Amino acid sequence: MSLRRMYRTFFCVGLLCSMVLFGCSTSSETAESGPINSVKSDTVKKVDSETVAGSSTNPVTSDMLEKAKNGQLNGVSIGLGATKKEVIEKLGKPARTGNDEYGFAMYYDGFSLGFEDYANSIDELNENSKVIVIYADPKIVNLTGKPFDIKEMLGTPSREVLDDTGNDTFILEYAGNDYLLKVVFDTNPVKYITLQEK
């Protein structure tokens, strides 16, 4: 076999391997029949929010979806829309504070509250700044398990998202009129719960 022919063979094999690898990695982004959708994908499985709320037969989890529609999470005594003043009066000073992607955050045992404004300290945060996102530990909310278990408890999600940017995050989203409940998974069990304004 000549050297030229051998290089051509290696090139063709390499080209075929890369086509197979890239073809497989993008199949999850374009598959419309699968339940999982990529964050990068424009194709997203939508379900009417009325169907979502009515699809759970478990009264405990139906109550959870109803609370989420009203900006509340089980186990967290503060809801979306509460002001800094209301939070401090009800919960006291947080264990720690800082800024996150949404704004100033107050961290309590088992959950954190994100506000609409950024600040360097709790004293700088406007008294009327409102909570726009709640992050909660699944044990606080009493919502643990694998994606299948959560779907059994809460019913069909509005959307399922597979974040294929490298950290294998899988998200079940339950949309209400004004709020979005996200159940975030790392590998399998629930990692955390998010309730936020749309």
UniProtKB/TrEMBL annotation:
It holds the Pfam family DUF4309. Residues 1-30 form the signal peptide. It comes from the Bacteria. Keywords: Signal. This is DUF4309 domain-containing protein. It comes from Brevibacillus thermoruber. The lineage of its organism: Bacteria, Bacillati, Bacillota, Bacilli, Bacillales.
